[in-house]
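Support reply, case 0932

Customer input (verbatim):
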Amino acid sequence: MTADRPRLSVCVATYRGAPWVVEQLESVLAQLGPDDEVVVVDDASPDDTVARVRGIGDARIRLIARDRNLGYVRTFEQALTEARGDLLLLADQDDVWEPGRVGTMVAALEGGADVVATNLATLGGPDRIPGPYGQADWHLRARSSGHRVRNVLGVLIGNMPYYGCAMAVRRSALGTVLPFPALLTESHDLWIALYGNTTGRMRHLEIRSVRRRYHDENASPDRPRGPVMVLRSRWMLVRACAELLRRRLRRR
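Our regenerated output:
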């Protein structure tokens, strides 16, 4: 970290987030230091999301407003690319961070992890989130952090609760993680999780670090997909694994 480079960067993608973005950013800013930053990339929102972010009036917010919509994967990619911090935390536009989130995740990153993943609770609802295979409480366990093969297979079959809004990554990982491959049309969080697991640098924390707001415009679906969409998604992730292997071999 240099004198003009923040220690922490929070990377936020926004699109039509006017009803929620101020509450989310206030919960983020409350946990940051005076020299940290929040990089907000707006994906050409047709509402007043940009105006509401500007209206917060906090110098730690760096807002990039695009004039063309590219989708949330490319928006998060730009936010990570623009971030200057050594440790990068991802955030959605419509959630609320739990107190203590930053300190706990930063400690795990500084303890040697390249990727840290935590759990979710719901905003205004129960802590438990049901899983796709009938789990009453679908969550990550600390003891499974080092189960590299099992975790990768879990990602491929859709049974690992990795959510970008509950994750953080070290800058040193960006040399492999970025740019996101062109094949990645969704699930940037699973791409980052695959990196963490294939390198053996993933750390699961059992804390519920963010309260997720469920509504009709969530980017992540809250109901089962059809079989064709599931197969397409799984094939994309298999190809993502192959791309990660190629990138790692090139960097050796």
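We compared this against your earlier run and they match. Two observations from our side: The mean pLDDT is 94. The first strand starts at residue 8 and ends at 14. Please reopen the case if you see a mismatch on your end.
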